[in-house]
Each structure stands twice: as structure tokens, then as C-alpha cells.
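Technical appendix A lists one of the benchmark inputs used to test multi-chain prediction within the project. The record comprises three sequence entries:
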Amino acid sequence: MSLDVPLQIHRQKEGVAPHRDLFRVSVADSATVLDAIEAAWAWHDGTIQFRHACHHASCGSCAVRVNGIERLPCVTAITDVWDGASDVVVEPLRNFPVAADLVVDVSTLFDRLEASEMSPLRPVEHALPVEIGERPRTDDGTMVAPAGIERFMRFESCIECGICISACPTAALGGKFYGPAGLAAVQRARAEATAATEVDAILGSVDGEHGVWRCHSAWECTERCPQGLDPAGAIMSLRRELTARRLRRLFRR
Amino acid sequence: MKTMETRTPERPPPPRRLASGLDPRRRGAGSWAFVLSRITGLGLVVYLYVHLGVLSLLARGPESWDSFIDVVRSKPFLALDVVVIAGWLVHALNGIRVTLANFSFGARVQKAMFSVAMVVAAVLLVIMSVLIFEGS
Amino acid sequence: MSARLAYPGGAPHVVVIGAGSTGAATAHDLALRGVQVTVVERGEVASGTTGRNHCLLHSGGRYCVKDEEAGIECIDENMILRRIMPDVLELNDGLFVAISDDDLAFKESFLEACEACHIPALDLSKERALELEPGLNPEVLGAVQVPDGVFEPFRFCLSFLASAQSNGAAVRTFTEVVDFEGDPGTVAGVRVRDRSSGRIETIGADIVVNAAGPWAERIAALAGIQVPVAPTPGVMVSVGRRLNNMVVNRLNKPADGDIVVPQRVSSIIGTTSWSVDDPDYIPIPQDHVEKMIKCGRELIPAIGEAPIRGVMAVARPLISKGGGDAREVSRTFECFDHASEGVEGFVTISGGKTTTARAMAEKVTDMVCEKLSVEAECRTRDVPLKSYRTFYTRGAA
């Protein structure tokens, strides 16, 4: 069964003031929002600029706002965001400079991720299944690795999509705030670090005015993360550790 | 690119450029808490200045203080007191939640903590309003 | 208009069309050999075929029985990629599992073929297979462990492009080729539309490499050349749970839905195969989605209860040799030097798979360097790639 969906897409090009164009696209009822954007591009206007690659929430490139809310359009069903009558509004992420249309400049995000030194890989944390957004579970020791492999590794849960930064009101105020993605990445790097000097350096890197202390606990990052992660919780746990560290140093004198 | 239907795209009205990053509508409880805490915080600062200004009336002698107290006892003014207390309760109780969650105590239930804080604030506000208006 | 641009030291300039795995690896190889490279891509990196692939770093087990050449190619490239991009690969090996007696009977020829292609293969008992992958169908009869791996295609391309950038390459995304420059019989550059500004620009080049995958035919047509590409999509289904750590393949001849690839916190079941004319927009046939779940459950029963997270399909750039079942079409790659068809300065690299992207790049870069009289050896086997995150921080367009 096919649907005729009215899709408003944010347009912004050099020399053209930001505005929205309306497209009526015909898509299958099982289609995603990304399918609808692609249909608008393929059948109506080949100049629409949008990022996409994997179509299964692993590359993180397609993140946009749908009806004002940050989402990954590749795994968002059109029927989840369309009431059958009103327009579906697609806009670029907040808090990043818009390059054109739905494409934003994500260099600051990747700058912070690279600086965090979070490895793209992590050990598989416990026996399968592993799910997004699950409560932390401890390894029950039943996992066995095959011959020639020390332990099972997997790609980090964070897909580096930038949705958390778009949702963050502190990031909206501009400035040099490291942002939830960057800080949560540092928390992951800290979790995987073993040597005391390494841990010290990692914690020290976010112990400044643009680091963990700049967060104002809106918790929007955790609310919007498509992978069900808790960047705000990661920031808070870094704060706790930094505070404990400071207190220990204070009393050591 | 080919076009199946060559039509110029229709142009809806341009989007409003409000500070969309700070607008709590369509966002989580955390954004509402963030905005409420800021508004009540500013409100309390303004109240503090007003309060200090009022106290300075004491320095001007008993007549000006007594005439001021008459105004303050009126129902409309008591209603303003209730507004101040509401602001204080929201700010303080949410503040407790923020302080705890900020150091990872109860971070997982921070949304629930906000709801509880607001319910407690509402209950206390009702009690205090009753006490204020009863005594007047 | 002179084709050779005035670069410092007079280095020749090559334009690569396409920032999928082929284009990215080619840009890296060219840049490493001292050639000036500009990559032009009409969308985002890996927004074509590469982005939506099955993410399987082949050990070669899938092909070794029927196609020894493909098997050897895969295992060689597999080992090279482990060396040059270790941080962007899940290296948990893979299993070829036997569920039926027919599967078990296939094991002997499978092991022989692996040996012939020097693919490390370990024959496992049913118990061992279930110990490694408790989520397997409990009726498993046996398995063979091979060095399959998993990549994430977007970051795969970003790694090659970041390395190319670090050697001076320019990568221009959202830059669409609309025509070729040059006198008849010569390609001297490309005319592109910069999508952000709408402006048409000319980029001069000594050689243009067509690495546009299923769109290679369309690009070549701009120069009056016919490139035989058959766009052949397949459906893959990603479920919202990681149900296996090792790649799980069916121990038998290649068929639909016989591979489950774990990736991050998902398991991806694939794939199918059918022909299309237009690679730009491929509606997903729902019966293929259902088939993937059905086939996946035969290998890992929990797939039946897992929520579907993503469904993808994109055209493979198979080289059509006229007629035949889509799955039968060769999966090797081909380089075409169109000088033999009367057009100088234009080559096409087509076919292949992401696992062999580096080898494809080596072949086309060898061809390009020979035409340019650039005497530099290929070093991509050994030079480690840069961090994929540095692609954006270096100020790509």
C-alpha cells in the first residue's frame, strides 16, 4: 500500500535565504522518513542535499530533526511521525553550522571525539544478546572466544550522529562546550583505561569550564539518543569522580 | 537527476527563528526543569532586590513601615507572596534533584525525581497558601 | 584549456568520480604515489552502494568452492585490511554452520577449497559451535571457523579518504559531475555542479577515474562510452539486538539470506538479489524482508523475536556479461581504459566488493600511473590508514 506524504524540507543554499519546500511524495506504507526524503530527491528535486550511508542506524550520518525532534530518519517509520494530514517537517540538526539544506558541518563533533581518544571498538560486555538502551549487566563469565582471539570485540554503541549535541540547550548557547558526545566519549575512554596516569590525564582533560562543569542537567541528550545511551549520566559520573579526586587531594595536604 | 513530475516546489511560510534550542515545548522533562529553574532563579533574584528595598523602609521610621504593612496585608499582595513561594519551592526542590543527579546519585531516576519534586512543591504550595490566606 | 594544472612540482592531477569504497581506496593509493587527487561525489561519502552493504569482511569462504580466484582475492585483502585499519574492524572470525545433512555433506568440498585458497579453516564439533555461539540453531550439526570480519562501510571509506587527505587529496562531497571537459576523443576534466551553491565549475584533470559503482554507466555515457553495469540490489534486514558475535554463514552453496553479520548492537541478515534499471531509488520488496527473517531464523532462532531496526537495499555494480541469473554474474572487478575505445584520459573501475576495494584501487592506480608515466610503487598493503574521524576535522567540503 502506498502513502502520499506531504514533506516539508528545510532548504538553504548559498545566496538563497533559508526556507522550506513542500514535496508530496509517494512511498510505501512501510517506508522510513529517509525513504521519503530520498523520494523527494529522486523524483522531485535532485538538488536536495542530505547525508546518508548505512540506512540501519550504524553510520550516524543521516541525523535530522523531524517535526522539531531529533531522530535518525533511516530507522524512523513515516507512519510514526505522520498523522495522515499535517505536513512532516524535516530540518537539519541544531547547534551545528548548516552547510546546505539538511547537511550540517560536523567537524566540531569529530574534533571532540578524536580528542577524547575513545576507541571505536570495545569488548563485548556480556553474553548475548546485547541491546541498545539496556541497563548495565555484568559479565556472567559464560562467554568463550574462538581459537586465536583473546575476546570478542564490537564497535562502540555511540554512532557519533550528533543528535545529543543538537538536543543540548547548553550547546545551543554556543561557545566551546565539549558537548555530551565528546564528554560521554571521554567517560568511555576512562572506563577502558587502566593505568593511573592515563586515568588522571583523561579526567583532567574534562575538568575545566568547557568540560563537565558546563552541563546544566537538561538531560535532553539522554532523552534523544537513538542508541538509548545516557550521555548525561556519563557526564555526572565524571563529575562524581572528579569531585572525589579533588576532595582526596584536599585532605591529603 | 530525473524528475517524474516537473513542478516547482510549493513554498510554505518561512520558519520562525526563535531560540529553538531553549524552547522546552516538544522536549523532555529535563528541558522544562532547566527552563523553570532559570526563570524562577531570575525571579527570586528580582524578589531579593525588592525585598531589600522593602526592608530599607524600616530605616525611614515607623509611619512609612506601618503604611507599607497595610498594603502588604491586602489579598492581592498575599497572592503575590504565593507566587514567590511557588517560585522558591520549584527552584529549591528541583535544585535538590539537580544537585543529587549532578553527582550521579539517582541519575537513572532523575526524570522521576523531577515529577516527585513538582508534586511535593504543589502540595506544599497548597498548604502554605491556605496558611497565608487563613491568617489574613 | 590546458589539462595539466600548475601544481607544485608539476604533479599530475587525477579526478576520481565516486566516494564509495572503490573511489576512496583509489584516492588513497594515488595520493600515496604522489599524484594530486580530487574526489568528486554527488552525495555524502558512501551514500551509494558501499554505505548499504552487508558489512562483511569476507574470509573468502563464501566463494572458494566455486570461484578459487575470488576466494584467494578475499583472504589476501582480508589480511591486508586487518593490518592497515585494525581499529575499524570487528575481528571475531566467522562460522559456516551446517544445519541440514546436505550442509554437512558440503563440508568436505568446503574444507578442501579453503585449503586450496589458503583460507585458515578450523573444523568444529557441534558442541564447540554452540559454546562459541549459544544463539545458534540447537539443531546445528557442525561448523567451520574462518577469519570473517565485520566493517562499518561509512567509516571504512572515511579511513581511506582521511589518509588521502593527509597526503594532499581534496574530497568534494555534494559535487555532481554533469559533463566532461575536453575535445572529442579526450577527457580533460569534469564539469561539476556544486550542490551547495548551484554553480557549475570546471575541474581540469590529466585522467578521470570513473568509480561511480552502479552509476558508472551513466557517467561513462557522458563521454559517449558504454560500460556494461547491471544494477543488482539485494535486501538486508538489521535487527535491534546483537544476537551473534561471529559472522554466521550457512555451510552450503551461496543462497539468499544465508549470512547473519553482527555489527555494533545489531545483527544483519542478508541478502537477496534482483535486477533493476534505475539505481537511484529502489523500493524495498516486503516479501524479501520476510524471507530474510525466515532464513535468519534457521541459523539463529532469536531473530524471529527481535525487533526490526533497519531495512536496506542498494544496487550492486555487477559487470553484466549479457543474460544469465543475476547471482551467476561474476563478482570480479574490471578496469576499462577507454583509450581503446577512442577516448583518452578516461578510465572506469567497476564491479568488485568492499572487501577487495584496496586491490581494485591498486589495479586502477597502476593503470593510471602507467598512463601518466608516474613511477611509484603501490604501498597501500602496508601503510596504516589515518583515523576516520580526522576526515571531517581536516575541513572536507
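Chain A touches chain B at residues 8, 10, 17-23, 41-47, 67-69, 87, 91, 94-95, 167-169, 171-173, 216-220, 222-224, 230, 232-233, 236-237, 239-240, 243 (CB under 8 Å). DSSP finds nine helices and ten strands in chain A. Comparable benchmark entries are summarised in Table A2.
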